[in-house]
Design goal:
The chain is mainly alpha-helical. The protein is 86% helix and 0% strand. Keywords: Coiled coil.
């Protein structure tokens, strides 16, 4: 009787150990996924801040010269601002 109970206890402990290993593996996978998501969010947030800065600075510079700039003038002003600020974001615009 004691041997049977002991075997059942060890069997359940082995099952728990296996389950715990699976949980740990899943947690590691989730940790990596969360890390990737955080990196992507940081990149997207940076890009949005950069876009906002380009729009504001380009509009300010252009409005000092023209009251009603057209699309091409605004685009040219934004490209100039990005080149002058030596921004990595400018080089990635065509790749997205």
């Amino acid at each position: 009787m004691n041997d049977a109970v002991t075997r059942r206890i060890f069997s359940k402990l082995d099952n728990l150990k296996t389950l715990l290993e699976k949980v740990k593996k899943n947690q590691e996978d989730m940790k990596e996924e969360i890390k990737t998501i955080k990196e992507e969010v940081a990149i997207l947030s940076h890009d949005q801040a950069c876009i906002d800065a380009v729009i504001i600075k380009s509009a300010q510079d252009l409005l000092e010269k023209k009251i009603y700039p057209n699309y091409d003038e605004f685009k040219e002003s934004a490209e100039f601002f990005l080149r002058e600020s030596d921004n990595e974001f400018f080089s990635t615009l065509g790749s997205k």
